[in-house]
């Protein structure tokens, strides 16, 4: 029997040598005259073990990792195709403690299925959600999403069901479903992993959304920095259309839903929903004034759902297993699971999907294993470049929307970037302002001018010019930006600065030039 | 403290009393016209057109702007505004290989700044510049989504992670060896 060998084709895995490992396996198998079937799956998200190679044996899958190309001849010698013993053997992947403790709902198939195969997707429970949705009215589907408690995973945490209901209630010949795949927050990669590892889940989620609210056209707005995800999505959309899961007659229902990927062009602001809509229309990504809400007047002036990748990709599970089943996970008003991304200076970085309710400390030390450098963790930034820096004294905070907000932080898209004690927090604050200056769309003054002035004020503090007065000025400037900006970029870019001032004030002092 | 991330304003062509006098060669003109006529029926086509133009010509030259504007029946200002809004669009061609070094937080926490200093020294150029032999262009980029394998870089669309000065040099040497 031909042995099936999995080597992730995920960009994160290939960035650390998975392509070379795959080539070495093919070459060595040919040299030995052994038949193998090589599948390029997604990543399971345990990036500290990538490239993570798996083989199917009589006893199920057996994992080896991290496997470099140089390890391959030795693995063959150890008969790894039959699950042979080797120092790199990790046993069954779902029993690796880091993965075994997770609650994978949205990511249940990522790293397991062949991301290019509809048949594999269906075999692993795909399209059950759509099938259920097709037996319900649009209003019932929207009600199920409301009952599930699902909130926008892009960062704003707006209840998804309410957004969908608004679109459903509009009388319009043309409505749209748009997916925000402009994952620009540093420390986040869950959208990328899902689009590369299980793109059909996103396609199914968007199809369910479209049929529920009466939209016939979907767009995925994908950042240009993800050419690998672009290829994966295009392949999957073509395959889904071929299998009649997209197009004029979705799954034999007689109803239409078409889907297309549009590429962004390297503008962080286009992750803001109205800016994304402008960009989809082929314009400069300048934010729109709300109201009107996109749900009423969105893409090309029509009622439009705008949801993040993970939000839409959570829909198939909810529809297949029931809204209550999803709502049974989580705490308080944060229902369901959250794919948390451990990033930066962390020993065991990657994607952890768990029900809301873990503390930062559990994530950083139980999953993450502490810093990669072995030095004490001094700060973590939660929620991307607009998120606050959290000091160790707050590591017992529960990672949910409300608890983080109570300590002045935000969850955002679920990324946690770890810094050890060598970090210079004044420089990180300066970077936050600099990033805002580079990425500001320029429409409103507090963001466009404020961020540039912010960089200058921090430079003056670091140069020792009127230190105390300038720190006070920086605080006032932050306040102006928070209160006066049109959207979250200028309105939140001060959060990392304010938190650095609050928790790491000692770093804001004059220093000698390097 | 300047990190060199800001893009210096660039002007191309000869400035002659308010008009930038530039034309495309006939082959490129035909290419741009063909792209516009193929895509103009799509909803909100401008970004798609610009992506296709950059894909074909390596950049969106200033001289292509009037052709695109004319073909889509919008103003030159609108096209110019979009080209200059997005970091991805270039007005002059990049070198043979484009190296995008991630400068965002997750990479900073793992030494991206030191790596950037090393890269600039190794290539002898600053960010947003191309080596005199036209081989390498160095750009900063803000998150490649490889934050659990930082610091990261993308070279000609290929992602690289857990970079060190040594592995960066090895990647450069590999590109140099390529025909």
Give an overview in words.
The complex is a heterodimer of chains A (514) and B (179). Chain A is an alpha/beta fold and 514 residues long. Chain A folds into 4 domains: 3-100, Glutaredoxin (3-Layer(aba) Sandwich), CATH 3.40.30; 118-327, 3-Layer(aba) Sandwich (Rossmann fold), CATH 3.40.50; 330-420, Ubiquitin-like (UB roll); 425-507, Up-down Bundle (de novo design (two linked rop proteins)), CATH 1.20.1440.230. Helices cover 40% and strands 15% of the residues of chain A. Chain A is globular. Chain B has 7 helices and 7 strands; from the N terminus they run E-E-H-H-H-H-E-H-H-E-E-E-E-H. In chain B, the strands form 2 sheets. Chain B has a 5-stranded mixed beta sheet, with helices on one face. In chain B, helix 3 (64-72) packs across helix 4 (76-85). In chain B, 37% of the residues are buried. The chains are: A alpha/beta (514), B alpha+beta (179).
Q: Number of DSSP strands of chain A?
A: 16
Gyration radius over CA of chain B: 18 Å
Radius of gyration of chain A using CA atoms only: 24 Å
* CATH-level-4 superfamily name of the largest domain in chain A: NADH-ubiquinone oxidoreductase 51kDa subunit
Flag low-confidence runs of chain A.
none
CATH fold descriptor of the largest domain in chain B: Glutaredoxin
- What do the pLDDT scores of chain B average to? 90
Sketch the topology of chain B as an H/E string, one letter per element: EEHHHHEHHEEEEH
Instruction: Give the helix proportion of chain B (percent range).
Output: 40-55%
CATH overall fold name of the largest domain in chain A: Rossmann fold
Outline type of chain A: globular
Number of structural units classed as domains of chain B: 2
Task: Tell me what portion of residues of chain B adopts beta-strand conformation.
Answer: 5-15%
**Number of helical segments with 4 or more residues of chain B:** 7
Assembly context of the chains: heterodimer
Structural class of chain A: alpha/beta
How does CATH name the architecture of the largest domain in chain A? Answer: 3-Layer(aba) Sandwich
The residue fraction in helices of chain A comes out at 40-55%
The strands making up the biggest β-sheet of chain A line up spatially as: 2-1-3-4-5
Distance between the termini of chain A: 63 Å
């Amino acid at each position: 029997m031909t042995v099936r060998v999995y080597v992730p084709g995920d960009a994160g895995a290939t960035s650390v040598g998975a392509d070379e490992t795959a080539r070495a396996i093919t070459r060595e198998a040919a040299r030995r005259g052994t038949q193998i079937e090589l599948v390029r799956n997604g990543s399971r998200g345990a990036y500290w073990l990538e490239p993570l190679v798996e083989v199917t044996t009589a006893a199920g899958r057996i994992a080896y990792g991290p496997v470099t190309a140089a390890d391959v001849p030795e693995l063959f010698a150890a008969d790894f195709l039959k699950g042979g013993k080797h120092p790199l053997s990790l046993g069954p992947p779902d029993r690796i403690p880091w993965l075994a403790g997770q609650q994978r709902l949205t990511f249940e198939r990522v790293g397991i299925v062949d991301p290019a195969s509809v048949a594999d997707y269906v075999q692993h429970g795909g399209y059950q959600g759509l099938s259920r949705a097709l037996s319900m009215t649009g209003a019932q589907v929207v009600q199920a999403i409301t009952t599930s408690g699902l909130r926008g995973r892009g960062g704003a945490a707006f209840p998804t069901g309410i957004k969908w209901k608004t679109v459903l209630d509009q009388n319009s010949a043309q409505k749209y479903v748009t997916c925000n795949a402009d994952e620009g927050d540093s420390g986040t990669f869950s959208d990328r992993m899902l689009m590369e590892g299980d793109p059909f889940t996103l396609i199914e989620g968007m199809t369910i959304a479209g049929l529920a609210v009466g939209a016939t056209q979907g767009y995925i707005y994908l950042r240009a920095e993800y050419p690998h995800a672009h290829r994966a999505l295009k392949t999957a959309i073509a395959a889904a259309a071929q299998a009649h899961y997209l197009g004029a007659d979705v799954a034999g229902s007689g109803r239409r839903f078409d889907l297309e990927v549009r590429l962004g062009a390297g503008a962080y602001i286009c992750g803001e929903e109205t800016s994304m809509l402008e960009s989809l229309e082929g314009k400069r990504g300048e934010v729109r004034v709300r109201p009107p809400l996109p749900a009423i007047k969105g893409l090309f002036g029509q009622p439009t759902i705008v949801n993040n990748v993970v939000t839409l990709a959570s829909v198939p599970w909810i529809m297949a297993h029931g809204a209550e089943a999803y709502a049974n996970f989580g705490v308080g008003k944060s229902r369901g699971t959250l794919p948390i991304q451990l990033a930066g200076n962390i020993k065991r970085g990657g994607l952890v999907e768990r029900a809301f309710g873990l503390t930062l400390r559990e994530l950083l030390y139980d999953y993450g294993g502490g810093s990669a450098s072995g030095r004490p963790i001094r700060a973590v930034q939660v929620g991307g470049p607009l998120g606050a820096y959290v000091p160790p004294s707050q590591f017992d905070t529960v990672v949910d929307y409300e608890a983080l907000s109570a300590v002045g932080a935000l969850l955002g898209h679920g990324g946690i970037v770890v810094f050890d004690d060598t970090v210079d927090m004044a420089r990180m604050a300066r970077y936050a302002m600099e990033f805002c200056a580079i990425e500001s769309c320029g429409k409103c003054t507090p963001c466009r001018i404020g961020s540039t002035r912010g960089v200058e004020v921090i430079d003056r503090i670091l140069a020792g010019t009127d230190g105390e007065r300038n720190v006070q000025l920086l605080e006032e400037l932050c306040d102006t930006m928070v209160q006066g900006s049109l959207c979250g970029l200028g309105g939140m870019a001060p959060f990392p600065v304010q938190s650095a001032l609050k928790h790491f004030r000692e770093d804001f002092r004059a220093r000698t030039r390097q | 403290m300047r990190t060199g991330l800001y893009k210096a304003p660039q002007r191309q062509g000869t400035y002659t009393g308010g008009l930038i006098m530039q034309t495309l060669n006939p082959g490129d003109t035909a290419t741009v016209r063909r792209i516009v006529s193929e895509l103009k029926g799509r909803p909100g086509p401008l970004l798609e057109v610009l992506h296709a133009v950059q894909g074909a010509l390596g950049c969106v030259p200033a001289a292509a702007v009037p052709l695109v504007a004319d073909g889509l029946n919008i103003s030159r200002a609108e096209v110019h505004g979009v080209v200059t809004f997005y970091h991805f669009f270039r007005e002059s061609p990049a070198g043979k290989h484009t190296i995008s070094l991630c400068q965002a937080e997750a990479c900073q926490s793992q030494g991206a700044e030191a790596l950037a200093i090393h890269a600039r020294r190794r290539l002898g150029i600053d960010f947003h510049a191309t080596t005199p032999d036209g081989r390498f262009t160095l750009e900063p980029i803000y998150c490649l989504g490889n934050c659990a394998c930082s610091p990261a870089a993308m070279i000609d669309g290929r992602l690289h992670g857990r970079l060190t000065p040594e592995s960066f040099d090895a990647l450069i040497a590999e590109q140099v060896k390529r025909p």
